[in-house]
Automatic annotation (TrEMBL), chain A:
PANTHER family: RNA POLYMERASE ECF-TYPE SIGMA FACTO, RNA POLYMERASE SIGMA FACTOR HI_1459-RELATED. Belongs to the sigma-70 factor family. ECF subfamily. This is RNA polymerase sigma factor. InterPro entries: RNA_pol_sigma-70-like, RNA_pol_sigma-70_dom, RNA_pol_sigma70_r2, RNA_pol_sigma70_r4_t2, RNA_pol_sigma_r2, RNA_pol_sigma_r3/r4-like, WH-like_DNA-bd_sf. Pfam families: Sigma70_r2, Sigma70_r4_2. Residues 34-98 form the RNA polymerase sigma-70 region domain. Keywords: DNA-binding, Sigma factor, Transcription, Transcription regulation.
Length: 194, 124
């Protein structure tokens, strides 16, 4: 799709949302270009399925459009709000998909790493995604926001509506699980023996 | 050799994170189009009035456009008068004006500036 240049590229996310709520059509386009890829990217990291991620991201963006007139300025960053909505929607889907409580999910699924066979160096991102898919949703959420989206721990705490210490705990446990999942595939992924 | 050093593991994991950050998944154009369509549809709802106003008929909208029913009444009167004048001819307008104006004898005039005063004022 041919998208026009983002004419409001200098405006903050919040300013764009207020403009959108006031009926500015240009703001709608700018926000779509800015927030749509973010919502999709996080949804894909969480779900590991492109079609499902687009569906979820569209739903999250729809919620953003609807809340625009009631947006209370200065209370939260638009991106933080969107991270929260996307990850919560994704968590709900994962819960339905697995049919078990997230807290009961195993820290590391057995045998999942077999899907990483024949991976080469440029496939590390895909390998990481496969490993992320094995994490419990809350750990996955924290790791994605911290290490792939680059949010600070307080920002993640706001997005996940938990304390900073809980974020640190989730991130640490998630990284340990990822390392364990990827450890057995180091050679296939181009790390070889040190 | 299986690496067991936690620091080395952390560095390796960072490589995976870096690879993932460099490999940003992009949404399809169709997805962006759907999101944009949603945004326009929702935004259109913002512009709509909270309570729908009753639909006005064409005649009522015309009356509203020219200034309401009093103005419309004036227009009708003027139109009828014009048609009547056109029908009876200019010569008989007196018949109509006679209804409104009395004869020359009864039509009073008031001179607010008696003769001479105007010239006196001009001379000053």
């Amino acid at each position: 799709m041919d998208m026009a240049f983002d004419a409001l590229s200098d405006a903050s996310d919040e300013a764009l949302l207020v403009l959108y709520g006031n009926g500015d059509p240009t703001a709608a386009r700018s926000l779509t270009l800015r927030m749509g890829p973010l919502a999709f990217r996080v949804a894909l990291r969480m779900l590991g399925d492109r079609a499902e991620a687009e569906d979820l991201a569209q739903e999250a963006m729809l919620r953003l459009w609807k809340i625009a007139p009631e947006w209370r300025q200065g209370e939260a960053k638009v991106s933080t709000w969107l991270y929260r909505v996307v990850t919560n929607l994704a968590t709900d889907r994962l819960r339905r998909r697995r049919g078990v409580g997230l807290d009961e999910a195993p820290e590391v699924a057995d045998g999942a790493a077999s899907a990483l066979d024949r991976m080469i160096d440029e496939d590390r991102a895909a390998a990481l995604q496969l490993a992320l898919d094995q994490l419990p949703a809350r750990q996955r959420q924290a790791v994605i926001l911290r290490h792939l989206e680059g949010l600070s721990n307080p920002e993640i705490a706001a997005a996940m509506e938990i304390g900073v210490e809980a974020v640190e705990s989730l991130t640490a446990r998630g990284k340990r699980a990822l390392a364990a999942l990827l450890e057995g595939r180091r050679e296939e992924l181009g790390y070889g023996h040190d | 050799m299986v690496m067991t050093d936690e620091k080395a593991k952390g560095l390796a994991l960072d490589d995976f994170f870096a690879a993932a950050r460099n490999d940003l998944p992009e949404p399809s154009g169709a997805f962006l189009a759907r999101v944009l369509n949603d945004s326009e549809a929702v935004q259109a709802g913002f512009a709509a009035p909270a309570a729908p106003t009753p639909r006005m008929g064409l005649f009522a909208r015309f009356a509203d456009l020219v200034g309401g029913w009093p103005a419309l009444g004036g227009m009708v009167t003027a139109t009828l008068a014009g048609a009547w004048i056109g029908f009876v001819g200019v010569d008989r307008i007196d018949a109509l004006s006679g209804v409104y104006f009395a004869s020359a004898e009864t039509l009073g005039t008031v001179n607010l500036l008696p003769d001479g005063d105007l010239l006196a004022l001009a001379a000053e």
